[in-house]
Design brief:
The chain is an alpha/beta fold and about 260 residues long. About 45% of the residues lie in helices and about 20% in strands. The chain has one domain: Rossmann fold (3-Layer(aba) Sandwich). An 8-stranded mixed β-sheet has the order 3-4-2-5-1-6-7-8, sandwiched between helices. The longest helix has 16 residues. The chain is globular. The two termini are about 30 Å apart.
């Protein structure tokens, strides 16, 4: 069985990559998890996962004529399989986003959960494609009205492509009352539960600087506990791996977002 989740926000700076790896580690206690940095233009998951010096990344799988295999770009880290993306601008420009379909389809054969760390800005088909491929979207947002407005774009794209909502994750929370003030609006616009409220934390920044996911670097921190709560709420509804892989391979890439 396998289910693909796009972790998206609609805006940068929400802690989307931290959230992707934290959810991945928490889910890996019960599932085979593969995390993919699908932000091919502004990749940074490799910094969070201690994979800065690897030779093969997702870019090498997306460039036409490249000889790399999916297994060459997949690394076992912290109980998960991680597919990082490179940061070279020339590689990004040479990458064909449509090839992501086949990469994800290949990964689906060996995973229970696929987590696609999605681009923040949804201004191109390469940015929207992870939402197209996902079964459901985890929307990460700060508890503010502007952040909610940005996140609504994620929900609109998801609905237009038939992708479901797995729920909302409030992140970098400094004031619980702020969550309460927009909770009703969030429930009105998004299907699925509030997965968790993750407090703003120095431990998150320390983990990033150390090149480790939060749950590896500071497993006893309140933020780590909140991510484990989110993962427990996120029920995996896996489908047949072969059928899911076929769907990924045949997914229609939008001409424009």
């Amino acid at each position: 069985m396998v289910e693909a989740f796009a972790v998206a926000s609609g805006k940068g700076g929400t802690g989307k990559t931290t959230s992707t790896l934290a959810l991945g580690m928490a889910l890996s206690y019960e599932h085979d998890v593969t995390v993919v940095d699908a932000d091919t233009g502004l990749a940074n998951l490799l910094f969070h996962a201690g994979l800065v010096d690897v030779d093969v990344t997702l870019h090498d799988l997306l460039i036409d004529g490249a000889n790399a295999a999916v297994a060459d770009a997949t690394y076992e880290r912290f109980g998960m399989s991680v597919v990082p993306c490179g940061t070279n601008l020339a590689d990004f420009e040479a990458a064909d986003p449509e090839r992501l379909r086949d990469v994800v389809a290949t990964l689906a054969a060996d995973a229970d959960v696929l987590l696609l760390d999605s681009p923040a800005a949804l201004g191109s088909k390469s940015a929207v494609l992870p939402i197209v491929l996902a079964d459901r979207v985890v929307t990460v947002l700060k508890p503010t009205i502007p952040a909610l407005s940005d996140a609504l774009k994620v929900g609109e794209y998801a609905r237009s492509y038939g992708t479901g909502s797995a729920g909302v994750l409030f992140n970098k929370v400094r004031d619980e009352a702020a969550v309460d003030r927009i909770a009703d609006r969030t429930e009105e616009y998004f299907d699925g539960p509030t997965l968790a409220t993750v407090p703003d934390s120095d431990a998150v920044r320390d983990a990033r600087d150390a090149g480790e996911p939060l749950l590896a670097h500071a497993p006893d921190s309140p933020a780590a506990a909140a991510y484990r709560e989110a993962a427990a709420t996120l029920t995996v509804e896996g489908g047949d791996s072969a059928a899911v892989a076929d769907r990924f391979s045949s997914a229609v890439v939008p001409d424009r977002p």
